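ok new one. same drill as before - structure tokens go in, u give me an amino acid for every spot. 202 of them this time. try not to just spam alanines like last time pls lmao
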């Protein structure tokens, strides 16, 4: 099992926001680009009413997630599925339209090509129930502005590694959301200059 330091640090603050999104009752959740699986295990343990389906495209991540599933033995944490978010929702492990209450994407957008972000919003538009939530977390540009300087430097370093990577702008994400039947309901400031974005399916 992988234990990324950043995931260990941010799992608590993210959980606090997810609690507000989740509400009472049994809910169906799909996490894309779940990475190590540390978040999935932490959130599934803390929110037993959620049926948490982790996914990733990376075989190493899938193995780590599977190890968390086995180690925790949580009945609401499902075995991981292989999922390429840039591909159509029809390939997303059999997830049916309007069947999800919550779609979660943590620290994916800035280290993937734009087509992955576009695919995420297209999938959310089809798979979320009316009133369902797309929850994303990470560093963002806000209406064309990146701050503080550490995020400016981070964005530059990402683009040097891969020109297709970089901090996504909330203005663009708002447009993508609206094109897929969602609206940006809330933007929550998080530790280490990150934000949680809450998009609601109309």
């Amino acid at each position: 099992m992988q234990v990324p330091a950043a995931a260990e640090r941010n799992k608590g603050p993210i959980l606090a926001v997810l609690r507000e999104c989740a509400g009472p009752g049994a809910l169906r959740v799909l996490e894309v680009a779940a990475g190590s699986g540390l978040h999935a295990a932490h959130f599934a343990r803390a929110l037993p009413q959620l049926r948490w389906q982790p996914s990733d495209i990376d075989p190493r991540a899938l193995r780590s997630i599977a190890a968390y599933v086995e180690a925790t033995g949580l009945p609401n944490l499902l075995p991981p599925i292989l999922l390429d978010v840039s591909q159509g929702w029809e390939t997303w492990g059999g997830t049916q339209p309007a069947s999800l209450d919550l779609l979660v994407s943590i620290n994916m957008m800035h280290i993937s090509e734009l087509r992955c972000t576009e695919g995420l919003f297209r999938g959310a538009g089809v798979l979320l129930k009316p009133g369902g939530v797309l929850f994303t977390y990470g560093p963002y540009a806000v209406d064309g502005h990146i701050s503080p300087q550490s995020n400016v430097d981070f964005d530059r370093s990402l683009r040097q590694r891969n020109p297709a990577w970089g901090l996504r702008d909330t203005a663009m994400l708002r447009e993508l959301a609206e094109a897929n039947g969602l609206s940006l309901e809330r933007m929550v400031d998080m530790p280490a200059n990150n934000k949680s974005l809450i998009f609601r399916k109309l």
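The two ends are 38 Å apart (CA to CA). and btw The longest helix spans residues 5-22.
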